[in-house]
Amino acid sequence: MIGYRARIGFLVPPGAPTVEPEMYTHAPQGVSVHFTRMVASGTPGSHQGQDERNLSQIAHLEENVELLMHVKPDVIVMAHTASSYTLGRQGEAELVAKMRKKTGKPFITAFGSVLTALAHLNVEKLALCAPYNAESTAKGKAYLEAHGLAVVAMKNLEGITSIYDQTAEGAYRLARSVDVPKAQAVFISGVGMPTLSVLDALERDLGKPVISSASAMLWNALRMAGVRESLPGCGQLLR
Q1: Rounded to an integer, what distance in angstroms lies between the CA atom of residue 178 and that of residue 184?
Q2: Tens digits of per-residue pLDDT, 85-101?
Q3: CA 108 from centre of chain
Q4: How many CB atoms lie within 10 A of CB 41?
Q5: For 69, which DSSP code?
Q6: How is the chain split into domains, by residue range?
Q7: Which fold has domain 113-212?
C-alpha cells in the first residue's frame, strides 16, 4: 500500500468538465489532486469573449489560490493554457513569481509546463492544434515562437459551440490533421479537451511525440512534487 506522497492543486477554468476526471484517473497512487474553479463571466467554452474570460480568471487568481492553500498542496497548477497567451511572456513570468512568493509553493502554468516538456523532448519544430478560435490559436503560435520554437503547422476547430464539448476522439482527429513531416512533435493546446487517453495511439500512428496541455502539466506537477513514476498509456512524456 503506497501512502501519501504529494498533493497537487489545480486552478481550473469554469465549465471545463474533463480536467478533474483526467487528473483523478491518471494521477499515480499516493498523489491526491485537488481543484478550484477560476472566476469568469460569460459563456464558458464559447469562442466569443475568450480573452475577456481569461482576464477575469487572472484578476481573481489570488482568491482561488487562497482556497487551494487550505488543502496544503505541494505544487499549484494554473490549468488553463490560453490564460498564458493573454498574459504574454512578461505577464506570465510576473504572475508565477508573485504566486510563488505569496504561497511559498511551486506555482506552474500549463503553458510553462509545455515549454519544459518540449525542451525535455528536444523539440524545436512543432505542429500546433487547439479547440480555440483562430485568433486565440494564433496567439498561441506567436507565444511559442516568442520562446524560440518554430510552429510549422497550425489548426483550430471552427464552427463549434463550446471548446468544452469536444471528445478525445475529436482531439485525435485534430492532431492527425495538423501533423506535417517537418514537425518533430504535435502539441494539442487546451486543457478542456480530453487528450490523455489518445496520446499513445497518436504517437504510434504519427511516429513522433504528441503532448497536450494536460499531459505536460501533469508531468511537470509530478516532477515539481518529487514524484518520478512512469504512467503508461499517456504518451511518451509520461511514460
Answers
A1: 12
A2: 889 899 999 999 999 99
A3: 10
A4: 10
A5: G
A6: 6-109+215-224, 113-212
A7: Rossmann fold (3.40.50)
